[in-house]
């Protein structure tokens, strides 16, 4: 049996696991990131976490096939340099080299969304021979990872696969990146809540206003639950939200035509509601209707995807 | 010396050439497509044209390294089936097999925009070691071709690389594909002329109105020439047009981060005007500013690109 160590470095937590070659998690641990601490204490905590987990798995570091870290931001997968990571306020942080020196073992680093895509790709691949996959993560933002020809794709300068910042509505809503109209400004939960709150502000007698008044705020779950129950305003807001996501999938299909598109993130639990709608939207709106649309699936690994993908980076 | 035969099948002309391994054209010929004739007479004319050109080059078909055809539409590069080509009104036309049988020699078929991209890629590659390139052709529509890892990329089901039909302004201007807001509905010459004619309709005393009145219509060249001369209204219209193209390039860079982006088509002659503007737009608007932007170049082969790319399909 082969063993791997993976870390998912987030703005809030550093989560890690030791996994085996079947992507089974043997040991998992996490510590708070406390991002305000800056690079060195965080990188040291990552190294410690790896060593602790290896020990708890009754393994030595030599028995670990490969070690990988998924980090937010734009990352050079060859050098392990994090060019920048907004959440962590890092610029040109040499995470790969630092950890490699600290552990005296090669540590691979890649973008967290790419690691999650790789994790889901490996989970899905069992029994299927897919070679290309795109993963769209609908959470606070819109994450994206791309597998082409069985490998994590990250572009010529490792500045790529930020599909959340492709244009959806030029000159449209403000995006977190400073531009207007990106996919993330429409197809993220932040955008959904912005739109729902606008609706409630304009319709203070509505059912959704009652929910907001009762709970102090609206959540994505409130909106999906209400839509699933057939509450008309929520259905309209969620259906429009799904059109934004669907349009992002259609553009991606028209451009890259991947075999599979996986939807992950906070939207996943509502899959029975959104998956049929998304599929028919894509079938009806894609450019080339003469060939089969990509399979659209929902992510199955949840938060473990990034850890498992990171653990297996060396091979992909 | 190795020799290749390439055909660029268009809605108006079937153009072909015999080229050598340095992409030098030895013989070139063309005949009218007369697309209303349907599949068989057109395919027969392609076969005849190839045989005539081979003869004029004082070669035999056996001496030709490979034969390729660039066709409009979505094409399965493995089988040579044209799934559909709107211009030609073909559906599931088995062009590859028909020509292979007719000539008794394997004939490769690919999308014309992909062939043009490959032709430009080969022309550019001399002396440079690029591995990835996207070509955006700004003409009546918006064509697109993609080279990844030295190969023509066309997606899992050969339905891909129709980037002209990725979204730019959701619910925006009507597109030829039946949807609204695609890149082609903003970044093509048809779109530019639509916008310019709207401006003239609303401003009948303007300089551009004078040109339209004098010539009966406006052309893309009129608009670029006027903008180059500094005529204010034309500058505004062209600058907005370049923002549409620039935004399409930014989205593509954020997603795929290719090494080079080549701009081809009718816009090419105005390169001194548009290239600096496009480059600075991309530098200022791309998501990841920590790494170098893709090189943006203007196509150099003109109409020969598709023929040369088709001729070299077998190798890429």
Give a quick summary of the entry:
2 copies of one chain form a homodimer. Chain A is an alpha/beta fold.
Spatial ordering of strands, largest sheet of chain A: 3-2-1-4-8
Instruction: Name the assembly state.
Output: homodimer
User: What is the terminal separation of chain A in angstroms?
Assistant: 19 Å
> What order do the helices and strands of chain A follow?
EEEHEEEEHEHEEEHHHHHEHEH
Label the overall shape of chain A: globular
Radius of gyration of chain A from CA coordinates? 20 Å
Average pLDDT metric of chain A: 94
Instruction: Summarize the amount of helix of chain A as a percent range.
Output: 25-40%
Number of E-type strands of chain A: 13
Return the structural class of chain A. alpha/beta
Query: Which band does the percent of strand residues of chain A land in?
Result: 15-25%
């Amino acid at each position: 049996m082969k063993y791997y160590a993976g870390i998912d470095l987030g703005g809030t937590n550093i989560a890690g696991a030791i996994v085996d070659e079947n992507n089974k998690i043997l040991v998992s641990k996490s510590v708070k990131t406390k991002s305000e601490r800056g690079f060195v204490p965080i990188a040291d905590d990552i190294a410690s976490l790896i060593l602790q987990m290896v020990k708890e798995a009754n393994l030595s570091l030599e028995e670990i096939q490969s070690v990988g870290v998924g980090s937010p931001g734009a990352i050079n997968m060859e050098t392990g340099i994090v060019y920048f990571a907004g959440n962590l306020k890092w610029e040109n942080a040499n995470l790969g080299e630092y950890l490699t020196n600290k552990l005296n073992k090669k540590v691979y680093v890649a973008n967290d969304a790419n690691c999650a895509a790789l994790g889901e790709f490996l989970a899905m691949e069992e029994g299927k021979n897919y070679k290309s996959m795109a993963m769209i993560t609908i959470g606070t933002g819109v994450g994206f990872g791309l597998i082409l020809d069985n490998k994590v794709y990250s572009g010529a300068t490792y500045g790529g696969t930020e599909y959340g910042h492709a244009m959806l509505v030029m000159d449209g809503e403000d995006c977190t990146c400073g531009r207007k109209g990106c996919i993330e400004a429409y197809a993220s939960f932040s955008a959904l809540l912005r739109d729902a709150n606008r609706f409630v502000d304009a319709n203070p007698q509505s059912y959704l206003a009652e929910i907001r008044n009762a709970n102090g705020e609206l959540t994505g779950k409130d909106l999906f639950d209400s839509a699933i129950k057939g509450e008309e305003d929520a259905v309209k807001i969620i259906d429009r939200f799904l059109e934004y996501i669907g349009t992002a999938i259609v553009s991606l299909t028209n451009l890259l035509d991947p075999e599979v598109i996986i939807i992950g993130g906070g939207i996943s639990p509502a899959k029975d509601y959104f998956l049929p709608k998304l599929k028919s939207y894509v079938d009806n709106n894609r450019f080339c209707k003469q060939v089969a649309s990509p399979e659209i699936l929902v992510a199955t690994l949840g938060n473990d995807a990034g850890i498992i993908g990171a653990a297996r980076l060396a091979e992909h």
